[in-house]
Amino acid sequence: MREPACRCRRCDSRRVMSTPAEVDRLLSAADEITARAGLGPDTRAAVERAVAAARGLGDPGRLLHALGRATLNLSQERLADGGDVTELREQAEEVIALAGDLLSDPDRHADAVVRSVQAGQILAGSGLVDRGRDVVERVWRLVAPRPADGLDARRARTAALTGLVTLRLETDPSVLGPLAAEMVDLQRGLARDTGEAAAVIDLADALGIFARVASTLGRPDLMRVALTEQYSLERMFQGSGAQKRLERIEASLAQLQQAAPENLVVPDSGAWRIRRSYLDLLAQPSPSGVTAGGFAARLAAESRVTGPAPGNRPPADPSVIADCAARLDQGISLADADQVIEADRVLAELADELSLYDGATSDPTRRDVRRLWSAALYQRAMLRHRIGHCDDAWDLAWLSVVVAVRRHEGLPRGTATEREALADAVTHMVDAAVVAEATGRHEDQIMLLSEVIDRCADADAAHPRLRRILGTALHNLAAALLERRQTATAAPLAERAYAIRHDLAVLDQRAAWEYANTLLLTAALAVDRQDWRIAVERLSAVGRLLAALQTYPEAMAGYAGQLVIEVTAQAPELVDRARAAGTWPYQTRTPQA
């Protein structure tokens, strides 16, 4: 590939013989001095040395890193003082050209995305708004369909989302809520996982962007959450720049308080690591509407799992635990054999007895009591739901969630026992959400599924059960929002479910069936937003998967058939192309004009 000519007027463009190690050292030094000292002569000289060395080496990836840094620093100088932007625009275009050749390189893809987006934003900031927006939109179209399942992939998606939301803020802010919320969630994950100070600063910036989006959506509640968290993060940093940012946030909060007075609570300095998903917050109705109340408040108000046992009941011992476990197995076996009346009796008596032991028994034995108690409540709830007694089932299911969560929250974090207790609790939540839907408690359904997603946010491949539950909660919440026509909020949730279930599909036939179900959901959402390429891709995949499974609910094939008819009518060229490639497993033909 021909090496591009140097357009940086301050850079020594003479060939410099370099080694990869020397260039990496200079790149690190340039990044470090920029972060430590800010802009200035020493920083400029360090960056110029890195650019010259990277050119001398002839490595496009290292040159992109160096030139991207030089262009970013130059933009901060020129855009701040209103100086001549000709050189800045030239360097940005060189970065875009260089990055374009590296976007298909798996090892350089993330950096190419980051630098392309930065350059697009710089062009827009220099007055070339349409050109900058075109660059960022093109990169987003490339990144959007890809799963964000690795660190580099997450970096790329976060950068593309940030650029997209920032540039669309001026033109179409009303549809940016889900994108801005996903941007914050991804950036939080990067900051937490990498521990980099720069990632924490980027999280603070993302929160500021989200607050602006929340303002356009008429959500002062979300503005307050984002601004107070941003304020908490900015207080971690020193210097005049940080002080100016704090003053701007204070002014925004003061204006917000004037318009919508409420007690302000600024999180402590470590709270950002465990804050809940902004996608979940966005999915909750505004406080001006009807809400079911937050999960934490509902949990705190539940009084059936507190207090001493009446009648001086003796505490449970190992023999009692063993007997109760055997009775639980008996109740489950009776339910599986459709001996409904007897199963209901056994489970009811067991749950009542365990509730008394809970008040009389101390940890650690009480954890076993609560494990069995929550399981007995859960099994009885599922039984009552199965026979159509949904209101009874809801009360039992909710109490099973409360008991399971209380058990989980009493365990040391990070242990195998704690992970299994969490898996039990969120399983109860997911199935309680199904019961809530059946009884018309749609806000409770959304509350429970959102809580599962929040609690399972750190589930990784080392715990397939938690990953599987997370995939189910994401799928079910997306499906619930789709039914309520909240498709913009549903789409990113469905894509997260798709990424998780794709990885788990090899576990067993049921996991493959769950993946097929989410393929259908993402296809339906793609049809809704008229993204025909994704619709064809997902329908092709689900058709092949259902043919391989052979055993699956007929409703899935029927739903796929309906979507196929619509996609074939609306995107005949894409369907014909897939058929020619041998990836379209359906018999329908493109309608003739």
Q: How would you describe this protein?
A:
By secondary structure, this protein is mainly alpha-helical. The protein folds into four domains: 1-171, Serine Threonine Protein Phosphatase 5, Tetratricopeptide repeat (Alpha Horseshoe); 173-288, no CATH class; 290-452, Serine Threonine Protein Phosphatase 5, Tetratricopeptide repeat (Alpha Horseshoe); 456-593. The protein is 72% helix and 0% strand. The chain is built from 25 helices and no strands. Helix 1 (20-37) packs antiparallel against helix 2 and helix 18 packs antiparallel against helix 19 (442-455). The protein is globular and about 85 Å long. It starts with 19 loop residues before the first helix and ends in a 13-residue tail after the last helix. Residues 1-16, 286-293 and 589-593 have low confidence and may be disordered. This is Tetratricopeptide (TPR) repeat protein.
Q: How much β-strand is present in the residues? A: under 5%
Q: What's the helix count? A: 25
The helical percent reads over 70%
CATH fold naming of the largest domain: Serine Threonine Protein Phosphatase 5, Tetratricopeptide repeat
From N to C, what is the helix and strand string? HHHHHHHHHHHHHHHHHHHHHHHHH
- The total strand number stands at 0
CATH architectural grouping of the largest domain: Alpha Horseshoe
The total tally of domains equals 4
CATH class membership of the largest domain: Mainly Alpha
What's the pLDDT, averaged over the residues?
A: 84
Secondary structural class: mainly alpha
Shape descriptor reads globular
Largest sheet: number of strands, sense, barrel closure: none
Radius of gyration: 28 Å
| Straight-line distance between termini | 46 Å
Which consecutive residue ranges, at least 5 long each, have pLDDT under 50? 1-16, 286-293, 589-593
